[in-house]
Amino acid sequence: MTTSTLEEAYKENPLSLQHILPIDFQSIQEVPNSHLWPNINNVPTSHNDKNPNVPIIDLIDPNVVELMGHACKTWGIFQVVNHGISLKYFDEVESQARRLFALPTEQKVKVVRSTNGVTGYGTARITPFFSKFMWHEGFTIVDSPLDHAKELWPNDYKKFCDVMENYQTKMKVLSFQLCMFILNYLQPSHEHSINSFEFEGALQLNSYPCCPNPYHALGLAPHTDSLFLTILHQTNNTKGLQILKKDQGWTSIAPVSNDALIVNVGDLLHILSNGEFPSVYHRVLVDQTKHRVSLAYFFGPQVESIISPLVSSQDNDGVVLKYRNVTVKEYLGLKAKHLEKVFSMIRI
Ligand SMILES: C=C1C[C@]23C[C@H]1CC[C@H]2[C@@]12CCC[C@@](C)(C(=O)O1)[C@H]2[C@@H]3C(=O)O
Ligand SMILES: O=C(O)CCC(=O)C(=O)O
Ligand SMILES: [Fe+2]
């Protein structure tokens, strides 16, 4: 039993408060210069045969392992349906998230993330790496949001906590199932079974307020997610998420149904797959009239775990290892300092 958590991994890389506090979206009428991005290539994507949408995988398909492995390899992102989680759970998390983001700014700043912490209200962690700020506010939860919820709603915090904890439990079970399929694809011989890891997760509530100038603002700047995988729910199926596709440029993810979930490969799974699965670059556009909320659940091995590229013993001789061994904690620390340059630092 270890006590290390994601909180521990970020402790040594504090951010300045100026990079954590979002602007007051409730009072702002115009996009200030600090949030104006000069060149966003915001052209609508039309999906057709030449421009296909990301794969949609039915979790009860008998070929699920093959389909998922193939989607991880060719896209690094896919949508899942038939995951067994009822719509009502997404609705209740969305409504609690909206309840939080609708609070006056003076209330929200009471639960702002500490400069060396993970849990709480604030901008995205990647903020300091860009010269412009994002049109976004978030609330990150690792395990229980109890202390923060008590601060916001001294007499009425229980519902928020129950809903968030329950959702994380559901996401953890689903993530584990997805990881099992993916590891089975990578190593059918089960040499490294899923049982060689303990896992942890974090829930990120994302809010993208209505933006007076959506063609010159970005909800989230281009990034990859760090852990094994991310499960994303876009509430009301509002689009906004785009991925960078080699031959297509920025491509919108077309919503499929209200309960479809988007799953993307993160950096640690990229390393574990010896570079076979790309951790896909993605960004978020904003809208003039729709306040978009999304729920992102990040799932990965416990921070002391060692990640080493998997190659099955039968092709051990022929395969060149692309990355050195790295602990999750070391990786997150390097990424917190260097963002995407981290890959060149661990490449063999
Ligand atoms: C468990 C995680 C995953 C984190 C860091 C930590 C808590 C918050 C997550 C996000 C959420 C927003 C995008 C991202 C890129 C960010 O800036 O903060 C994510 C990041 C990552 O995937 O690296
Ligand atoms: O809101 C979205 O669609 C994407 C969110 C995201 O990329 C993240 O939280 O890492
Ligand atoms: Fe992301």
Describe this structure in words.
It comes from Solanum lycopersicum (Tomato). Its cofactor is L-ascorbate. This is gibberellin 3beta-dioxygenase. By secondary structure, this protein is an alpha+beta fold. It has helices spanning about 5-10, 65-75, 85-100, 105-110, 145-150, 160-185, 265-270, 330-340, 340-345, and strands at about 55-60, 75-80, 120, 135-140, 200-210, 220-225, 230-235, 240-245, 250, 260-265, 280-285, 290-300, 305, 325. The strands form 3 sheets. The chain has an 8-stranded mixed β-sheet with strand order 1-2-10-7-12-5-4-3. Helix 2 (about 65-75) crosses helix 6 and helix 3 (about 85-100) packs across helix 6. It has a single domain (about 15-25, about 45-345), classed as Jelly Rolls, CATH 2.60.120.330. The model has no long low-confidence stretch (mean pLDDT about 90). The structure holds Gibberellin A9, 2-oxoglutaric acid (AKG) and fe (ii) ion.
